[in-house]
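FAQ

Q: What does a record look like?
A: Structure on top, sequence underneath. For example:
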């Protein structure tokens, strides 16, 4: 019972804090989008995309590996010291690489923004979120992130008053990262721990090789996810990148739901895979049914409300972001479904199949990006992300069929096709009040849930896992 209570508290703390932090970050994004304008906001988005790539490179899967190490080993100080030292060295190399790449960027303003963002890599090396995650101290994680996001928002409101202050944005991000890292270090030290920094070539090499497989899958996903603003910025213009980034920020806010499923449903899958594998097929399919219900409801409702959301948050200047947002929602919908397959494959120790699916999906995305851009404009990047996730889903399903009866057509394909046939004409062609459109979507969810196979058994499963 104490374990259950602790887990429940962690889940509640994490989600409440995650929603709060994302909303604070979203307010900062909306403010910057309005103050800077689409072109300058695009430059900021390109700089942040570069930073995301090099954060992934400098972390190289170390946070995931660190969680495993802390859980298994009792010498916290040694592990923390080794991991911080290793990541700090990786960060130095990443900054040097960014500096060399910057010589090939023609825009001096964009070059300055990218270099300013690269400073964040240094405090990120000392970010001990992974340590407190291993200790299941989610309240501290939420608090640390909240301090950092609030600090960032305050700095933005103070220093970024016109579009001429664009260079202050990455510096505000750097200072907020510094504050966040300092918060976790002070908490760590206050518990009687010490941080022992030591630069051992043998240890750094060993951790690099051990963490490398974990970092590859993450890098592939990040490259694909953050390519569109960079691609649009160089092929079209920073303004188009700004339109895309504004739309993407709203979609990423929807992805809070992905974290909800990760913490509420997927532990059941992992537990079944190790303790009661004979029940795994049933638990997987029940989980998948509820995910598809949420995907259809929130996905098509989001597409319907896209214009209202974009104009409310960013203003009329970002009208071009509406169609982009609606296409990126395909990425949101398939991401939630893919998460069920991802966690199940990992539970079955099939990480290579997951990494392979990401690799093939990214190849398809990269190969089609130019053609999609020519056909659909910036919205083609949203279409491309949807195709990427669809390819990943097909490959993972093909692998998972060797272990489970996934009922892919019945639970996923058929309900999605029916929903597209019903809802897309309603959203784009029928001249009805938006309230009536939402009501129609809600009413139609009843027969769709029957089509998916929601019965008394699924309702009982939901009550046991969530309520």
């Amino acid at each position: 019972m104490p374990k259950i209570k602790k887990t429940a508290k962690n889940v509640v703390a994490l989600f409440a804090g995650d929603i709060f932090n994302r909303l604070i970050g979203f307010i900062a994004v909306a403010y910057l989008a309005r103050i800077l304008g689409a072109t300058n906001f695009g430059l900021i988005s390109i700089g942040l995309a570069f930073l995301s790539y090099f954060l992934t490179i400098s972390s190289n899967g170390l946070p995931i590996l660190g969680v495993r190490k802390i859980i298994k080993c009792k010498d916290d100080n040694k592990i923390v010291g080794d991991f911080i030292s290793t990541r700090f060295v990786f960060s130095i190399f990443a900054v040097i690489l960014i500096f060399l790449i910057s010589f090939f960027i023609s825009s001096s303003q964009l070059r300055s923004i990218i270099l300013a963002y690269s400073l964040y890599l240094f405090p990120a090396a000392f970010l001990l979120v992974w340590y407190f995650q291993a200790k299941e101290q989610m309240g501290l994680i939420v608090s640390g992130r909240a301090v950092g996001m609030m600090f960032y928002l305050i700095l933005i409101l103070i220093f970024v008053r016109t579009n001429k202050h664009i260079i202050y944005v990455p510096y505000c991000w750097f200072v907020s990262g510094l504050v966040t890292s300092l918060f976790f270090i002070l908490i760590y030290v206050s518990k009687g721990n010490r941080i022992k920094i030591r630069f051992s070539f043998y240890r750094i090499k060993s951790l690099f090789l051990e963490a490398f497989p974990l970092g590859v899958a993450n890098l592939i996903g990040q490259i694909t996810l953050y390519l569109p603003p960079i691609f649009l910025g160089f092929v079209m213009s920073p303004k188009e990148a700004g339109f895309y980034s504004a739309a993407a920020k709203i979609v990423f806010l929807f992805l809070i739901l992905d974290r909800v499923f990760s913490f509420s449903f997927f532990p059941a899958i992992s537990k079944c895979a190790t303790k009661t594998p004979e029940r795994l097929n049933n638990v997987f399919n029940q989980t998948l049914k509820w995910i598809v219900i949420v995907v259809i409801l929130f996905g098509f409702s989001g597409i319907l409300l896209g214009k209202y959301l974009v104009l409310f948050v960013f203003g009329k200047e970002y009208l071009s972001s509406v169609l982009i947002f609606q296409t990126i929602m395909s990425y949101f919908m398939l991401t939630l479904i893919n998460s069920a397959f991802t966690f199940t494959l990992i539970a079955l120790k099939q990480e290579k199949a997951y990494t392979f699916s990401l690799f093939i999906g990214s190849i398809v995305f990269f190969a089609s990006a130019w053609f999609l851009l020519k056909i659909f404009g910036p919205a083609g990047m949203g279409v491309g992300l949807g195709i990427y996730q669809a390819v990943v889903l097909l490959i993972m399903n093909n692998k998972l069929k060797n272990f489970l009866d996934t009922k892919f057509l019945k639970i996923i394909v058929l309900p999605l096709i029916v929903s597209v046939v019903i809802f897309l004409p309603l959203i784009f062609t029928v001249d009805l009040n938006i309230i009536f459109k939402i009501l129609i979507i809600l009413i139609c969810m009843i027969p769709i849930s029957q089509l998916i196979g929601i019965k008394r058994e699924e309702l009982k499963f939901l009550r046991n896992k969530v309520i």
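Q: Is there anything notable about this one?
A: The chain has two domains: 1-226, 255-467.
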